[in-house]
Amino acid sequence: MFERLREDVSSVFHRDPAARNTFEVLTNYPGLHALLLHRFAHWLWNLGLKWLARTISTISRWLTGIEIHPGATIGRRFFIDHGMGVVIGETTVIGDDVTLYQGVTLGGTSWNKGKRHPTIGNGVVVGAGAKILGPFEVGEGAKVGSNSVVTKEVPAGATVVGIPGRVIIKRQTEDEVRRKEMEERMGFDAYGVTEEMPDPVARAVRSLLDHMHAVDDRIDSMCKALRTVNSEYQNGELPPLQEEDFDCVRDPGEEKQG
Ligand SMILES: CC(C)(COP(=O)(O)OP(=O)(O)OC[C@H]1O[C@@H](n2cnc3c(N)ncnc32)[C@H](O)[C@@H]1OP(=O)(O)O)[C@@H](O)C(=O)NCCC(=O)NCCS
């Protein structure tokens, strides 16, 4: 239980650059309070104590402005930033590492019982005020723009904006493709930052890594030129980056992603 709590708290640090310390996060983040109360309410709901579960959910709504039906299934490291006005319906299923901002509705469009709310894949980010309505899937890693209204399935990795939500296809730049390859090679996000996280230190590290790649490429082409003079010159591979070298920049509680 404490392991889960630690994970929930550390996910706040990962996704909100304004978070300063654990005490501040535990006392001032309504998204975290709503999540903890939901985990309790969901447990009661599964035990069949439905009235008590709904009452906990209502108290949570009074305290946080976030309404999560106790029947909703929520994965690990879920984070609601700011929170006010978030509504999550009974048959919603949310994967791991999902982020919602204030005013998001994960709702239904029918009064029939049964699955009527969305299923949100791992790593999805839903912008402020967005409405996702209906029993369809939002694929892993998708982004939903603020104030969008989404009523149809969203493919994994897509970005959806507008009313009605439309997928905007963004071609990856060469830098982005190379970063992705490097993350895959090392098994985790070496840059530790997404476009939504304006952490100046992480951005500086990203620039240094980009520069390092540019220098690597330059040295590579110099070596190629020199090998035309001496075929034996610098034939060996450079030593690869080891994952252990990055342990010092990871949170102790953080699990390996992916
Ligand atoms: C959807 C989102 C993730 C897209 O980010 P991105 O991949 O960096 O995309 P860009 O900013 O390059 O925008 C791409 C296009 O979509 C448009 N767009 C972006 N967000 C939009 C939105 N919410 N509604 C309508 N259009 C949007 C841009 O104007 C741009 O259009 P163009 O190609 O015609 O110029 C981001 O805009 C967003 O809404 N994030 C949510 C953030 C949030 O809610 N923060 C709350 C903090 S309190």
TrEMBL record:
Q: Which reaction does it catalyse?
A: L-serine + acetyl-CoA = O-acetyl-L-serine + CoA
Tell me, in one coarse class, where this protein mainly resides: cytoplasm
Span of the secretion signal?
none
Going by the UniProt record, its keywords in alphabetical order are: Acyltransferase, Amino-acid biosynthesis, Cytoplasm, Repeat, Transferase
Q: Which GO terms describe its biological process?
A: cysteine biosynthetic process from serine
Q: Tell me the CDD domains matching this sequence.
A: LbH_SAT
Q: Name one GO cellular component term.
A: cytoplasm
Q: Which compartments does it reside in?
A: Cytoplasm
Compositionally skewed regions (Basic and acidic residues) per UniProt: 247-258
Disordered: annotated span: 236-258
Example GO molecular function: serine O-acetyltransferase activity
E.C. designation(s): 2.3.1.30
Q: Which domain of life is it from?
A: Bacteria
What family is it from? Answer: Belongs to the transferase hexapeptide repeat family.
Record-given protein name: serine O-acetyltransferase
Q: What is the organism field in this record?
A: Marinobacter salinexigens
